[in-house]
TrEMBL record, chain A:
Pfam families in the cross-refs: ELP6
PANTHER family: ELONGATOR COMPLEX PROTEIN 6
GO CC entries: elongator holoenzyme complex
Family from the record: Belongs to the ELP6 family.
Name the UniProt record assigns to this protein: Uncharacterized protein family UPF0405
InterPro entries, sorted: ELP6 (IPR018627), P-loop_NTPase (IPR027417)
GO terms (BP aspect): auxin polar transport; negative regulation of anthocyanin metabolic process; positive regulation of cell population proliferation; regulation of leaf development; response to oxidative stress; root morphogenesis; shoot system morphogenesis; tRNA wobble uridine modification
Pathway: tRNA modification; 5-methoxycarbonylmethyl-2-thiouridine-tRNA biosynthesis
Length: 301, 358
C-alpha cells in the first residue's frame, strides 16, 4: 500500500507522484511566515526530516541549520520520534521489506525501533546527533550571537562567511545543500535592528542559490511587520522567495483538532509543458507529536 | 492552566510513568521537561517549564500583574529557591515585605497544633533551639506541596526574606541593561543545567522591564537584545524567568517581538467597575478584579501546541485573601424576554417550560 502523499509535499512540489522518491529542491528560496498564535516551526521540522531521511533519494542532501530560536537539543528531541507510518503505526509492506533488506548498520543509524502489538517495525526517525556526526547536518548555534553596536556589519559578514565556508566545504560532495535559518526576525535583534544589514545578508545568501544551487529556507514572524510602519524586510523576502508558506490561525480561532491553516504560494510550478505558473494551496493542519496531519476544511476524518 | 486532553495515539508517551522529582517544588513532565510552580494553583495544571521565559503583559490601568508576581516569588521562597528580583524602584527590597504568606487552612492548623502538642510532650525543652534552622518547606502528610495557596492579607515570614535568599536590583540604577544582564548571568551561573539529576532551581522576577522611568526606556533594540540573551541564559539553566512589561508603552511592532520571545505569554486586563453590560454578560462579575488571558504556552522538546479549553479567566480573591482564576461563564439568557439572568446572580432554571425542556 502506497503511503498517501502529504498535502504539504504536493504543494511544495517535493512529491513527483512517488512518495518514496521525493524530489529535492535545487536553488529555491522558501519563506515561512508565522505569528504568535500559530508557530510555523513545524514546517521546518517536516523539511529537515524530508531532507535528512536516510532511505529517500533526497538522502543526497546536506542541511546547514542556522539557529537563532532554539538550541540543538530542542530540534533533536522533536525530530527523534518523527517518522513515516501507516495510520496508527502499522508499517507498509514496502517499509518492512526495505528494513529487512537494509544493512543493520543503516538500521541503527538514524532509526528508532519500537514494537506495537507484536509487530516489529522501524519508526523512521531523524537522529540529528548522528546526522551531525555523519556531516549531513551542520548546525550553527546562534542563540547568543550579538553584534556590537559599532560592528553590526562585521558581525553579519562574519556569519555569512561561516555559512559560505560550510557550503564550499560540502559543495564538492555533489549533494543538494539546504540552508535553513530559524528565524530572521531574531537575526534582526542580533543585528541591533539593522534591517539593512539583515537584507544584505539575505541577498548574499541568495547568491549561493545560483553559485552552488543551494536552497534557502527561512522563517519570519509576519505579525511583527504588519503592525510596523515599514515593511521592507518582509516585502524583500517575499520578492526573493520562490515559495511562500504562511501559517495562521483560522478566522474562528484555534481548536484542539485544527491548529491552524497553511497557505502556500508556489511561484515556480511547472505544468510540464515548459510553462511556469503560480499555484496557491490552502489547507488546515493539526500538529501531532510524531507527524502533522493536513486536510482540507471539513475533510478531516 | 487547564490543558486539553485530546485523543492519544498508541505512540504517545506514558506521561503518568514520569518519575516524581526528589527536589521540593519541582516535578517532571513529558518530553524530558521539569516544571516549577507559578504559585497560583489555578495556573498550575503543570506549572512553568524550567528553563523558560514567562512574560506578562501589564495593563497600566490596574496592577493585577503584581498578584501573579507576588505569588510567584512567595512560592519560590517557600521552596527555598534563590530569587533575583528587579524592579524600577529605588528600594526594591521593600517590596519583599508585601509578599504573601502561605495560606494555612483550618484543617492544617488543627493538625499542626496536634503535631506541635505532640512535639511539646516529647521534646518541649528542645523547641527553643529550633528557630531559623527549622526547615522552611511546609509539608503535608510528609510530602512537600508543589503549589501552595497564599494569603494576600498577611506578609510572608521575615526569616524567609532575610539574608541572601533574594537578590534585589533596582532598574533605575541601570543606565543600560548590560550591567543587569551580567547580574542575571552571575545568578544563573549558580544553577547550571546538566543532563541528569538537578540539585536546585531558581527564579528571576523582573517587574515592569520597560517602565518609562528607566534610562534605557527609549532603547527598544537594547531591551530586545537583553530579553533574547536572558532567554538563552535561562534556557541553559535550572531557572524560570518571570517578566512583566506594560505592552502599551512600547510600539506595537516591538511589543510583538517581545511576545514572540516569550515561551509562555499571559496578559492581565482591568475590568471597569459597575459596567452594566458586563454584569449582564458574565456570572459573578461583581467579584471579579480583572481578566487574565493565556496567549501562548511554552513548548519544550515538542512541536505540539497547547490548546487550552479556555484562554481567558477571571481574577478573583477568594474570601478576600487568596488569588483564584476562574473560567468565564456567560450569564444565562432568558429566551422569552431576550435578557439575561445576570442581575439575579444565580443560574436557576427558568420557571417557564419550553417545548424542549430537558
Amino acid at each position: 500500500m502506497d503511503r498517501p502523499a502529504s498535502f504539504l509535499d504536493e504543494a511544495l512540489s517535493l512529491d513527483d507522484g512517488d512518495s518514496n522518491n521525493l524530489q529535492p529542491w535545487i536553488g529555491r528560496v522558501v519563506l515561512v511566515e508565522d505569528c504568535v498564535e500559530t508557530n510555523g516551526a513545524f514546517v521546518l521540522h517536516h523539511l529537515i526530516k524530508r531532507f535528512l531521511s536516510p532511505n529517500l533519494s533526497s538522502s543526497d542532501s546536506i542541511v546547514i541549520f542556522v539557529a537563532f530560536a532554539q538550541p540543538f537539543s530542542h530540534y533533536d528531541r522533536i525530530l527523534l520520534p518523527l517518522g513515516d507510518r501507516q495510520g496508527e503505526g502499522v508499517p507498509s509492506k514496502e517499509a518492512k521489506r526495505d528494513i529487512g533488506d537494509m544493512d543493520w548498520r543503516d538500521l541503527v543509524t538514524g532509526l528508532e525501533l519500537a514494537w506495537v502489538g507484536g509487530l516489529g517495525f522501524a519508526e523512521l526517525g531523524c537522529n540529528l546527533v548522528v546526522q551531525r556526526e555523519n556531516k549531513r547536518l551542520i548546525f550553527f548555534d546562534m542563540l547568543m550571537l550579538e553584534c556590537p553596536d559599532d560592528g553590526v556589519e562585521d558581525g553579519i559578514i562574519a556569519l555569512y562567511g561561516n555559512i559560505q565556508k560550510a557550503v564550499e566545504a560540502v559543495s564538492s560532495l555533489n549533494k543538494n545543500i539546504t540552508i535553513m535559518i530559524d528565524d530572521i526576525s531574531l537575526l534582526e535583534v542580533a543585528a541591533n535592528g539593522s534591517t539593512k544589514d539583515v537584507l544584505d545578508f539575505m541577498h548574499y545568501c541568495h547568491t549561493l542559490t545560483t553559485q552552488f544551487a543551494c536552497t534557502i529556507i527561512t522563517v519570519i514572524h509576519e505579525d511583527i511587520y504588519s503592525s510596523a510602519d515599514h515593511f521592507t524586510l518582509p516585502l524583500q523576502m517575499e520578492h526573493l522567495a520562490d515559495i511562500k508558506i504562511k501559517a495562521e490561525p483560522l478566522v474562528t480561532g484555534l481548536a484542539a483538532d485544527v491548529h491552524g491553516q497553511l497557505t502556500i504560494l508556489n511561484k515556480g510550478s511547472s505544468d510540464g509543458l515548459g510553462r511556469w505558473k503560480s499555484k496557491i494551496r490552502n489547507f488546515h493542519y493539526r500538529v501531532k507529536e510524531n507527524s502533522v496531519e493536513y486536510f482540507y476544511p471539513g475533510g478531516r476524518t | 492552566m487547564a490543558t486539553n486532553k485530546g485523543r492519544t495515539s498508541s505512540f504517545s508517551r506514558n506521561f503518568s510513568a514520569a518519575p516524581t522529582s526528589s527536589i521540593p517544588g519541582l516535578k517532571y513532565g513529558p518530553n524530558g521537561t521539569i516544571f516549577l510552580s507559578s504559585g497560583v494553583p489555578d495556573l498550575d495544571s503543570g506549572g512553568f517549564h524550567l528553563g523558560s521565559l514567562v512574560m506578562i503583559m501589564e495593563d497600566t490601568e490596574a496592577p493585577h500583574h503584581m498578584l501573579l508576581l507576588r505569588n510567584f516569588m512567595s512560592q519560590g521562597l517557600v521552596h527555598n529557591q534563590p530569587i533575583l528580583y528587579a524592579s524600577p524602584s529605588t528600594n526594591p527590597r521593600a517590596f519583599l515585605g508585601t509578599l504573601p504568606t502561605m495560606l494555612v487552612s483550618k484543617d492544617d492548623r488543627s493538625r499542626n497544633t496536634d503535631a506541635e502538642q505532640k512535639d511539646l510532650r516529647i521534646a518541649w525543652q528542645y523547641k527553643k533551639y529550633l528557630g531559623e534552622n527549622k526547615p522552611h518547606i511546609e509539608e503535608r502528610d510528609g510530602k512537600v506541596e508543589y503549589c501552595n495557596e497564599f494569603d494576600l492579607r498577611k506578609p510572608i515570614e521575615k526569616h524567609l526574606i532575610m539574608g541572601n535568599r533574594v537578590e534585589c536590583i533596582s532598574l533605575l540604577d541601570c543606565s543600560s541593561l548590560a550591567g543587569f544582564r551580567n547580574s542575571c548571568s552571575k545568578f544563573l551561573s549558580q544553577l547550571p543545567r546538566y543532563d541528569g539529576n538537578i540539585t536546585s532551581a531558581g527564579r528571576i522576577a523582573i517587574q515592569s522591564l520597560c517602565a518609562p522611568q528607566c534610562e534605557y526606556f527609549d532603547k527598544e533594540w537594547d531591551m530586545l537584545s537583553f530579553i533574547r540573551s536572558l532567554k538563552s541564559m535561562v534556557r541553559s539553566s535550572n531557572a524560570v524567568a518571570f517578566l512583566t512589561f506594560p505592552a502599551s508603552l512600547v510600539s506595537p511592532s516591538v511589543s510583538k517581538r517581545w511576545q514572540h520571545l516569550a515561551d509562555t505569554l499571559l496578559s492581565v486586563k482591568a475590568i471597569p467597575d459597575e459596567d452594566k453590560e458586563l454584569a449582564n454578560l458574565l456570572t459573578g462579575y461583581q467579584d471579579m478584579l480583572g481578566l487574565l488571558s493565556v496567549h501562548k504556552v511554552a513548548r519544550f522538546n515538542t512541536q505540539v501546541p497547547v490548546i487550552l479549553d479556555a484562554t481567558t479567566y477571571s481574577i478573583k480573591l477568594q474570601k478576600r485573601r487568596s488569588l483564584v482564576l476562574e473560567c468565564l461563564n456567560q450569564a444565562p439568557v432568558d429566551g422569552s424576554s431576550g435578557s439575561s439572568y445576570g442581575t439575579s446572580g444565580s443560574c436557576s432554571g427558568s420557571s417557564k417550560t419550553g417545548t424542549l425542556d430537558f
